[in-house]
Specification:
Layout: H1 2-14, H2 32-42, H3 65-71, E1 77-80, H4 85-93, E2 97-102, H5 105-120, H6 124-132, H7 146-154, H8 160-177, H9 184-200, H10 214-218, H11 234-245, E3 249-253, H12 261-271, E4 276-282, H13 292-300, E5 309-314, E6 318-323, H14 324-329
Parallel strand pairs: 1-2, 1-4, 2-3, 4-5
Antiparallel strand pairs: 5-6
Helix pairs in contact: 4-11, 5-6, 5-8, 5-9, 5-11, 6-7, 8-9
Amino acid sequence: MRLFVALLVLLLFTSPVQVWRAAETLPSQLSDADYWRMISEFSEPSGYFLYDIVTSNELSYQSVIPDLVKSSRSGGAYFGVGPEQNFSYIAALQPKIAFIIDIRRDMMLEHLMYKSVFEMSVNRVEFVSNLFSRKVPSELTADSSVQTIFQAFAKAPADMMLADQHAEEIMTRLKKRHAFPLTAEDENRIRAIYRTFVREGVLNFSSSFMSPGYATLMIATDGSGKNWSYLATNQNYDRVRSMQQKNLIVPLVGDFAGPKAIQMSAQFVKDHGGTVNVFYISNVEDYIQTAWQQYFSNIASLPIEPASMFIRWSPGFQTSLAFIADFVRAPRLLRR
C-alpha cells in the first residue's frame, strides 16, 4: 500500500499534465471594457474555413451530456468552437466563464449578435421571436414546451419590418450600450448574419453546411429521451442569458494551432486559479494536421483537472469524450 501511494505521488509530480490547484477567482462579471479588451487582445486574424457554418450540423451533440454532467464539476472554464451548440453545453455544465474560439471572424460576430438577442429576450419565446423576426403566436406562453414553441413559430411568417427594428436594436446595444468599437464591415456582417436567420426560419437552414434546421437541433435528445438544448427549459435558457448579460461568454477569433487565442485564454483562467473543465473541439483536429505541434503546445498550456474532457465530433456523426490529460501524454495515439 505504501509503495502504491509513493508511486501515485511520483506520477502526479512528474506528469507533464498541468493539474491546476489554486484559489479560484474567476470573475462573476466582466465590464464591457474588459470584455472587449479580451476579444481584441486574445483574438488572432480571421482565417479561412471551407464550409459556411451558421448553425450546428451535429445531431449527436447531446449524447455525451449525461456522462459529462456526472464526471465534470460545475464552475471553472468552458472552451468551445462553432455556433449555438455551445450554449447547450454551457447550460448543462454551468461554467463560471466560457471562451468560444473559432477561426472565422464571422463566428465571433455571430456570437455578438446572439449576445444582443439574449439580452433583448426575457424568455425563450421572446428569444425565438427576436432571433427569427416572427411575431409571437398567440397560443404560446413563457412556459410552453420547446416542441410547442417551434411548432408554432414554424407557421409564423417572417416580419421584415420587425426584422429591421431588431437589427437596429442589436447594433444599438453593441455599439452604444456596450460601446464596442465595431468597424463598418463588422456591422455589415452582423446585419447579414441576422438576415440569414430571418430568411431561413426555424425549420430549414440551407445557408449553413448540412444544418438540419434550428427546430431539429433544439428538440433533439440525448438518445434516452432527455432534451438538454439551451431552449429546452426556462432554467437552461436563464443560465445562458445570465452569462451573456454578465459578459461571461467571450467569443474569440482564433486558430486552434494559432499563436495566442488558446494560450491567452488559458493564461487568463490560470491567473484566476481556475481550470478548463471541458473543451468542445468538434472535428477541428481534422483540419490542423500540418500544425499539430503548435496545437499540442496550445492544449498543453491549459490548466486542467484529471477529469477535464474533450468533446469531439466525427464526420461519422458521432460525438465522443476523451480525457485532455491522456491527449497531453500521447497526442497522436489517443486523438480518436
